[in-house]
Structures are given as C-alpha cells and as structure tokens.
Amino acid sequence: MNLAAAPGTGPATSPLPVVKRSRVKTFADLPTGRTLVMGVLNVTEDSFSDGGQFLDTEDAIKHGLRLMYSGADIIDVGGESTRPGAAFIDPELEQQRVLPVVEALVKAGAVVSVDTMHVSTARAAVAAGAHLINDVSGLTHEADMPALVAELGVPYVLMHRRGDQQNMNDYAQYEDVVAEVLSELEALRTTFLDAGVRPEQLIIDPGLGFAKEAPHNWTLLHRLAEFKALGHPVLIGTSRKRFLGSLLSSGGQPAAAQDRDAATAATSALAAAAGVWAVRVHDVASSHDAVKVATAWGHGGAGELRQGE
Ligand code: PMM
C-alpha cells in the first residue's frame, strides 16, 4: 500500500515533510523522575477539540513534530474520533491516516503510541514502530485485543469505558463510581493476564469523560490514589474535556474547547502531585510546565531536576 498516496491522507502529489532521522527511541528511554506528558495528535475529521485540523498527513506530521519540540514525551496518534456520537470508521481508513504519521514520528526520534480500538491497526502501527497501544474501548470493541497485546509484548493502556462512542452516555450511571470503575478495570485486567499479558505491560486509565458525567470525573480525579493502588502506572486524559468547559462556563455557556488549556494544565499539576505516570494533553507546553512545578514542589528543594526533565 502506498501510504503517502492513500485516500484521506492528503493529495498523492503532496510530498511529506522531510523528517531528519534521529536515534530511534524506545519506551525504556522515557524519563522516570516525573509525570510524563503525552501529546494528542488526532488525524481525524471530527474529534471534539482538534478534529479536521490534522487530517492531511503532512499537517499531522508537522503537528507531531511541534508537540515533540514542545516537550511531549510520547505522541499519541489516533485516526478515529472517540467523542460521544462519533461515527465508527473502517480500520483500513484509520490505518491510512495513522501509519505514515507513526512512521515519520518514530523516524524523528519520538516515542509514539497508537490510539486505536482495532487489533489490525494496533498490529500495523507497532510494525510501523509505535511503542505502545492506547485502547479506549474498555474491551467493548474487539475481543482479540488481549491476545494481540500478549503476542506483541508492548505496553498497553487499559482504559475504562462502558458502551461505545454512540451509546456510552447512557451508561454514565453509578452508585459508587470509584468502586465500580475499579472493579470493572480489575475484571478487564484479569482477562488480559489470562491471555498471557505480563502485568508490567499494563497502564491503567479511569477513562474520564467516557460514560462519565462531570461529578464522576471529579470524584475519580479526587481519588486517583485508589487507581495507583492497583499497582500499574496510571494515565489520565482531562484535556479540554466537557467537564472542564462546564466548570469554566460563563453566562450559561461552557468555555470553548480551546479555552480549557489553563484548566487542563492545573489538572496536570494536581495529577502529577498525585503521582500519575502520564497526562494526555493537547497543549503540551503548559502541561509540561505544570508537571515540572509539581515535581519541584514534591521534591521540596531536595535535589535539582536534571536538564530536560
Ligand atoms: N481521551 C480521548 C481519546 N483518547 N485515551 C486515553 N488513554 N485516555 C483518554 O482520556 C482519552 C484517550 C478523547 O479526547 P480527544 O478526542 O481530544 O483525543
């Protein structure tokens, strides 16, 4: 397949940006002394905050490089919108969108994750150099995912969700959101371990905004320690989400998605102080600063941050 010429990835004649080859990074190269910043790169037409901006392959690669130079530790490349009500897309089209971007960013020296619910896309992205799989399906989509993760041996983000992008809001009903999300994640974890996945491969995500209303999201954020207690690294995604828009609303109108980055950075600082492994954000620079502040605060003056950390 000629990925550069694939439909939905830009005109066949448009040359891709020249990407200087850097030393290819591995997952083990990621810093360990602080919370990591994962930059969001949606190669989609309809993601709620940046849909349509980076559908063209060249624009997507350029934005990925911008995220990298802004301090992203990981670039999360997705080709299918997961916002409530989004249409399902064919994994073939998803691959046409994400694979050339994954390849180019890996070549440029980025650690790359692929945000996908599809086994075929996860497999192809890892073959193209992706270092981890970020699956928001909560295993509601493709039952073969645990077998693939066991086979590939790569890190995998296990996120909590109920239902799919078309009906998940109907399932945002909990008696005790923390207890229920934890027990549903534990059941999923068992499925992965039974399939042969090693515990060290799993990264846990409570899935903020996925079958959750604003009060659920705030309760989950308030009690991140209980997710850390599962014994895996924890990832959270608050970036520009609806619950931040409602918090910042004025005159009865939620704040626009692009006006939620300061609030996102505040959640990054608090999540870093709570010891999460990574925050997934659109505006990398502000969250990178936020994480640095939280780390320095946590050290209480004992030990300097190394350059670049
Ligand atoms: N949120 C979105 C997409 N992918 N992945 C993980 N692990 N956690 C999240 O919270 C998450 C995600 C939706 O946000 P977007 O449409 O702005 O990418």
Characterize the structure shown:
This protein is an alpha/beta fold and about 300 residues long. It has one domain (about 25-300): Alpha-Beta Barrel (TIM Barrel). Helices cover about 35% and strands about 10% of the residues. It has helices spanning about 55-70, 90-105, 120-125, 145-150, 175-195, 215-220, 225-230, 240-245, 260-275, 285-300; strands spanning about 35-40, 75-80, 110-115, 130-135, 155-160, 200-205, 235, 280. The protein has an eight-stranded parallel sheet. Helix 4 (about 145-150) links the parallel strand 4 and strand 5. The radius of gyration is 18 Å and the shape is globular. The N and C termini lie far apart (about 40 Å). The relative contact order is 0.13. The structure holds pterin-6-yl-methyl-monophosphate. Pterin-6-yl-methyl-monophosphate (PMM) binds next to strand 1 and strand 5. Belongs to the DHPS family.
What's the SSE blueprint?
Elements: E1 36-42, H1 57-69, E2 74-78, H2 91-107, E3 111-115, H3 119-127, E4 132-135, H4 145-152, E5 156-159, H5 177-194, E6 202-205, H6 214-222, H7 224-228, E7 235-236, H8 242-247, H9 261-273, E8 278-281, H10 284-299
Bound molecules: pterin-6-yl-methyl-monophosphate (PMM).
Residues 40, 42, 47-49, 82-83, 115, 134, 136, 157, 159, 205, 207-208, 235, 237, 280 line the site of pterin-6-yl-methyl-monophosphate.
